[in-house]
Amino acid sequence: MLNFEEQKKRVLSGLMYNDLTPELVEARRVAVELTNEYNASYGQLPEVREPLLRKILGEMGEDVFFEPSFRCEFGYNIKIGNHFYANFDCVMLDPGGIEIGDNVTLAPRVHILCHDASTKQFIGYTKIGRVTIGDNVFVGAGTIILPGVVVGNNVIIGANSLVNKDIPSNCVAAGNPIKIIMPLDTYYMKRKERQAREVTELVHKYRECYGKEPDEKALHEFFWLFSDGDSQLTETWKRMMTLVGNEKESYDALRANKKKYENLDKFLKEI
User: Fold this and answer.
1) Which of 12, 23, 86, 215 is deepest in the core (most CB within 10 A)?
2) pLDDT digits (tens, 9 = 90+) for 53-73
3) Is the pTM of this model over 0.90?
4) Are 19 and 115 in contact (CB under 8 A)?
5) Catalytic site residue 111?
6) Which CATH superfamily is domain 4-177 in?
């Protein structure tokens, strides 16, 4: 008979295990109580909520936040980096271990599953697999990530996807089952083209409505089209950068950005 620590090591090792031992049943009960407490603290100050979350997770960085309700199987097998945000109804079944990098966002109802209980009916044991998610990843609403999957860095996963295989870095992927849609650079190019159409339409409507040119505040969502360095940011745009939660990484991305227009004034004169 394995003691609790030995059972935890076996689970993380990837071997099949009996998930109904008294020790593991108790660990799940504790996880439910701890997540109940964390979910009930919604709206309180970070100084109150963060210690509660650290009691649940095995390891976490700075600026980690879950909207209610958050559920996990054990919690102590979850490792999360800096600047993480999970929207409503996130579920992490973590027996095989979940490791998440920096600057990751999960949209509502994302489920990360590290075990496959279908084997239990036939052989009495549960099959597991570790899930790893890299840095700078966005996972769309309603997505399910299955055991054993590795998601690379700089990835966008579309809504309602079934992630049943590894996803390489620097791409956009979606579907059930998931497939690669395009490289991330192609997505950015298409997004800038769409933004250019959107901002042109906005300027025309602004002129019709107010009889004057829009300023940088009115066009604050589009500053990436006109800026590729810190010195070019107006105070309005700098305030936008501080709201994103990962300010340093955003400035690094801005410096690498290839702006579409020389500056805002010249853009307004051309349209």
Assistant:
1) 86
2) 999 999 999 999 999 999 999
3) no
4) yes
5) no
6) Hexapeptide repeat proteins (2.160.10.10)
